[in-house]
Amino acid sequence: PAPQPGANPAVLTLDAAQAAPATAFRGATALDSYRALNCLTSAIYYEAGNEPEEGQRAVAQVVLNRVRSPLWPHSVCAVVYQGSERTDLRCQFTFSCDGSMTRGSDRQSWARARRIAQEALSGKVYAPVGLATFYHTLAVRPSWAPSLRPVAIIGAHIFYRMPGFQGAPAAFRVAYSGREYQSGPAPRPWMPAPVIASPVYDWAKADAPAILPVPSVTRPPEDEPALPESTIRPEYRNSGRPRI
Questions:
Q1: Looking at residue 2, what is its pLDDT?
Q2: Domains in the chain: how many in total?
Q3: 3-state secondary structure of 149
Q4: Residues of the chain whose pLDDT is less than 50?
Q5: Is residue 224 part of a domain?
Q6: Sheet with 11-13: strands ordered across
Q7: Residue 156's domain spans which residues?
Q8: Residue pLDDT, tens place only, 141-156
């Protein structure tokens, strides 16, 4: 569809889907709230850090839509880092398992992502994305895309909702657990280094090693030197003998 006059050029609506209900995501403790904010900020920053603000709000809404759906975990961090322990790049949000988090963050961009995350957790709904729970960049075409309903193109991403009941408002009634038990990617399983077996030496087929004879060493006979003549004076030659 052609964009309407006065419409936001960063948003192209493809489906007039109902927006998610306004919900505040409050942690059970201050630590839970802190972790939820950090996890959502990371998702916004690494998934849409170069996007306009509309694109970042859309990513935040997808994360929170999943939290309210029965098909995903019911905490913000568990949704963001689902599958992050995998090594085949098949985690739910690619940044959590492809090494993106090892690069440094830009302070100003991080602050903007954190502000958007805080507003979303406080109950600010981004309506153009509706009840979307999937998205991908316009540069790729995943195999799962044709089975979903496209909702909108926002920035460099296209957003989808599930067909049927799972994409309807009635499916998004699961309460936020309020507990955040992780604050980053899940640890990857330790894989021991492969053991390289030494080649087996078949002594039966191998030639026996040659045994070299030990060379004999012969010395020419040497004449024993003659004892020197005694220099003891005659009167002392019998000294030391016992007296009988």
A1: 46
A2: 1
A3: strand
A4: 1-3, 5-6, 244
A5: no
A6: 11-13, 149-154, 157-161, 134-137
A7: 11-171
A8: 899 999 999 999 999 9
